[in-house]
Amino acid sequence: MRARDYSRLPTERRHPRSRSLDQLSARQLATLMNREDAAVLRAVKRAVPQIAQAITRISDALSRGGRLLFVGAGTSGRLGVIEAAECPPTFHTPPSLVQAVMAGGRSAVFRSREGAEDDRGAGAREIRRRARRGDVVIGIAASGVTPFVGAALTAARRQGAETILVTCHPNTPIAARIRIILPVGPELLTGSTRLKAGTATKLALNMLTLGAMVRLGKTYGNLMVDVKPSSRKLRARAVTLVRTLTGWPDARAARLLTRAGGRVKLTVLMARAGLRRADAARRLAKADGSLRTALGRR
């Protein structure tokens, strides 16, 4: 097999406007970086149709009992880890619903493990062990050629899972059912994909998870009604949400929230429909977790 010329990848090319990067003042560096970041929003905007398609596939899969798995190496893998970790506190999802597979394992999240991204066998094994028919596997590969990710998506297809790829390489050889291309161009620091590529990827992942969770009824309007009150701040947020949606004072809202086991949607339904906890839980389940539907509102 002929060796790949990595220097020809979009993420590895030298940026013509940063050749004198080490000679710039702090103000010039900040100005140049800010100017380059404008390319991120343009790139994500061009990918909106594919992102929307992916949101639909993800929410449909999760509503049928599937799970969402992010797969990546290096910066891309860490972004997947962040996305998976944020779902339980934000949307009260079980940890098994949204998972992250990091090349090199858990330790590679905090300390780089060079060479882990080249381990095709490990990528395939991890997905064969975790994924099943009905799941969605999202490969994240800024360069578009990461062997760990390519092998993982191939294994996912064979397992019967839906496949999505998020990449900054327009001509990536990695196959996926949906490919979200974010062509941000070369980085100011050649090859450092934690910069524009990382920012564009984070924005796309935000859109995928938020979009899917909204479609699953995890919000009421723009309110985070499935928040898990696992800290003082989140507990205060939950009380504020109940107060906002019921008009009750904080003390009364806090008491009912405690009776409802900290579940905001259940608390609001109990308050506004005058239901006991068990009856409210049944109505909410019948509405597939949608507070709006359970309240009978359009």
Mean pLDDT: 95
Which topology of the largest domain does CATH recognise?
A: Rossmann fold
How many DSSP helices? 12
Listing every helix as H and every strand as E from the N terminus to the C terminus, the arrangement reads HHEHEHHEHEEHHHHHH
Shape: globular
End-to-end distance, in Å? 58 Å
SS-derived structural category: alpha/beta
Radius of gyration: 22 Å
Sheet-strand content, in percent, reads: 5-15%
Describe what you observe in this structure:
The chain is of the alpha/beta class and 298 residues long. It folds into 2 domains: 10-215, Rossmann fold (3-Layer(aba) Sandwich); 232-294, Orthogonal Bundle (Helicase, Ruva Protein, domain 3), CATH 1.10.8.1080. It is 51% helix and 9% strand. It has a 5-stranded parallel beta sheet with strand order 2-1-3-4-5, with helices on both faces. Strand 3 (136-141), helix 6 (147-159) and strand 4 form a beta-alpha-beta unit. It is globular and about 65 Å long.
